[in-house]
Design brief:
The chain is of the alpha/beta class. The protein has ten helices and eight strands. It has one domain: Spore Coat Polysaccharide Biosynthesis Protein SpsA, Chain A (Alpha-Beta Complex). Strands 3-2-1-4-7-6-8-5 form an eight-stranded mixed sheet, with helices on both faces. The protein is globular, with a radius of gyration of 17 Å.
Length: 232
């Protein structure tokens, strides 16, 4: 796909021990989204994530923390459009072209895609549909929806909060204050690995508790330790 000087996309992917899935995402990006810029920011992986990523992308090693990694990748990027992807997601083949088409409308500053857990489990399928309904109703975007944004708007927002947790939650809410956003009707496939690991009910409860705790300004490090089971 030929790109103009005014709509270059930089794809930024933060990683930490993602060897099991990063190769699939990067190969998909190379095969379907060339010649866009592809950047991986690694937070200190102990597996071979970095070695795999170097086969496909520009790789930078940074401090641990998704917010810091995303901001560092944005700083190193050159695109007019920043597209942030989680390592365990697979975007639709038309995603990049749809981003460019959408952002021809100067009133729109960014957006994301429909969320879909890649599973035949009835509860996970229901949750995917429910999430999309709720997100469209309230015009909310999250990190696992493949957030994209104009570079100049990202700078005005001062990027992501460099907290240990909930950086995408805060970013999505701040984004709406800067202009019009849209959730595109293409699905971004997300691994259900965390749901299988935690169990459906436990995962729902943990995510709900962490959102309320964040809203009530509980110390971020404490939330991180509790959510990920980190012992002091």
């Amino acid at each position: 796909m030929k790109e103009s000087s005014l709509n270059r996309i930089s794809i930024i992917i933060p990683t930490l021990n993602e060897a099991a899935c990063i190769g699939d995402l990067l190969k998909k990006c190379v095969d379907e989204f060339q010649p866009y810029e592809l950047i991986v920011t690694d937070g200190g992986s102990a597996d071979n994530t970095v070695e795999i990523a170097k086969q496909f992308a520009l790789v930078y090693q940074t401090s641990k923390g998704r917010g810091q990694q995303l901001n560092f990748g944005a700083q190193k990027s050159t695109g007019d459009i920043l597209w942030f992807l989680h390592a365990d997601t697979l975007p639709h083949p038309r995603s990049a072209s749809e981003i460019q088409t959408l952002l021809k409308d100067e009133k729109i500053i960014g957006g994301a895609f429909e969320y879909n857990l890649t599973s035949k489990n009835i509860w996970l399928r229901f949750f995917s549909h429910y999430s999309n309904f709720k997100n469209k109703l309230f015009n909310r975007v999250y990190g696992d929806m493949g957030i994209f944004i104009r570079r100049n708007v990202f700078k005005k927002m001062n990027g992501f909060k460099e907290s240990m947790l909930m950086e995408d939650y805060a970013f999505g809410r701040e984004l709406k204050k800067h202009g019009k956003i849209k959730i595109l009707p293409l699905k971004i496939e997300t691994s259900p690995r965390d749901w299988y690991k935690e169990g459906f009910i436990r995962k729902i409860c943990k995510d709900t508790i962490i959102k309320f705790a964040y809203k009530y300004k509980i110390e971020n490090q404490k939330l991180y330790n509790w959510y990920y089971g980190v012992k002091k």
